[in-house]
Amino acid sequence: MIEAIRKLVDEHGRMPVPAASLKPDQDLYAAGLTSFATVQLMLAIEEHFDIEFPERMLNRRSFASLSAIAACFNEIEPARLAS
Amino acid sequence: MCVKCETFLDGLFEHGLLIDTGIDGLYGRGGTFERVVTGLESLISRYGDEDQAEVVRFPPGMNRKFFEKSGYLKSFPQLAGTIHSFDGNERAHGALLAKLEGGEDWTADQRATDIVLAPAACYPLYPAVAKRGPLPKPGLLFDLQSYCFRREPSKDPARMQMFRMREYVRIGTPEQVTAFRAVWLERGREFVNDLALPFDVDVANDPFFGRAGRIMASSQRDQGLKFELLVPIESVEKPTACLSFNYHQDHFGTTWGINTQSGDVAHTACVGFGLERLTLALFKHHGFDTAQWPAPVRQALWP
Ligand SMILES: [Zn+2]
User: Fold this and answer.
1) In which element (H, E) is residue B227 found?
2) Which residues constitute the domain of residue A57?
3) What is the per-residue pLDDT across B213-259, written as a single tens digit (0 to 9) for each?
4) In this structure, are residues B220 and B226 in contact, taking their beta carbons and an 8 Å threshold?
């Protein structure tokens, strides 16, 4: 999961560092993720995993680290399968 | 307040302060209204003059290419206004008149010009500054004023579609720019105290469009990039932003390639004064007759 996100961060995050160098809990904003790139990343994750972030997750904290993004995904996915 | 007037807006019309055009948010201004605007502008200048800002005035239209590059359409497509114009031949003119006569939509054949309406006074400034090359060591400071356009029709007179914004814009290092904003956060409070208006200062976000906009708005708030000085006008629960203090970080510096002398990307910040909103706040709190306004307020506006 984290690896799939890592790949999307590389492709859409426009980060100054390669995503391979990022630890799961490392602050992506401190590592150079901008607000605009966060939006691109959000859209890419939605498309790649065929999910939709609910309103309450559309904030800066949801994308603050690889594991934060994974946590959002883990929360959305069971809800989707159940519905 | 006036008894026969249903709303604050009706009162403004009734007293000749604003003039109805039939379009919500598009009003003429009467002489008394303008006298207040002029008074506000000179009071703002008295606060800002010691910094010796470079005065620049742009018209309310801007180069469409600059507008496109600014990123405004990414964030606020719903607010933008473009200028379209007829550029057909005589036959096309005939078709236009026929449609007009028949009550049909004639506007679909209008073509976009190379001008769009300025969404904020500072938007035309950044490309002009970029052309000058690297910033001088102390950075730059500008004094701007322009009519601005935002497509948000409303019966709330404080939400106009065409309104004037006075701005000071600082361009420099992050330290220079954040210091500027801190100074104006203080001055802004003093300024509104001079006007004897009730206010609050609060962290804020711009009305970014759509789901992606939710992330942008949350980022702006979490990072404390935008503050507003709010005065109750139409409602106490939802007070109106009359001043805004915006730290753009390197957004415009990166977009336009503005660099400091040491070669780093320049940061920018601006303080914006909503001239109509401040004027409306004064009429709301001190009444429609300026002769009856508190003496210190009159003194501040017209010394
Ligand atoms: Zn501005």
Assistant:
1) strand B226-231
2) 2-82
3) 899 899 888 888 999 999 999 989 999 999 999 999 999 999 999 99
4) yes
CA distance A56 to chain B (A): 9
> Residue B249: closest CA among chain A residues belongs to which residue?
A34
Q: Using CB atoms and an 8 Å cut-off, which of residues 14-53 of chain A contact chain B?
A: 35-36, 38-39, 42-43, 53
* pLDDT tens, position by position, B95-110: 999 999 999 999 988 9
* Res B195 pLDDT > 90: yes
Q: Do B215 and A63 touch (CB under 8 A)?
A: yes
Q: How many domains does chain A have?
A: 1
Cα of B123 vs centre of ligand 1, distance in Å, is 7
Q: Which of B208, B198, B174, B166 is nearest to B284 (CA)?
A: B198
Instruction: Report the pLDDT value the prediction gives residue B108, as an integer from 0 to 100.
Output: 87
Q: Model confidence over B76-93: pLDDT tens digits? A: 999 999 999 999 999 999
Domains of chain B, each with CATH number or no CATH: 8-81+119-301 (3.30.930.10), 86-116 (no CATH)
- What are the tokens at B173? 């290092």
Share of chain B above pLDDT 90, in %: 90
Q: Note whether A60 contacts B74, CB cutoff 8 Å.
A: no
Cβ neighbours of residue B297 under 8 Å, at least 6 residues apart?
A: B194, B195, B196, B282, B286
For tokens 């010009």, the residue is B113
What global pTM score does this model have?
0.88
What distance lies between CA B288 and its chain's CA centroid? 24
Centre of ligand 1 to C-alpha B31, Å, is 27
Residues belonging to chain B with any Cβ–Cβ distance to chain A shorter than 8 Å: 71, 74, 211-212, 214-216, 218-220, 222-223
Q: Any bridge partners for residue B230, and if so which?
A: B200, B241
Q: Under DSSP, is residue B219 helix (H, G, I), strand (E, B) or coil?
A: helix
pLDDT at B3: 55
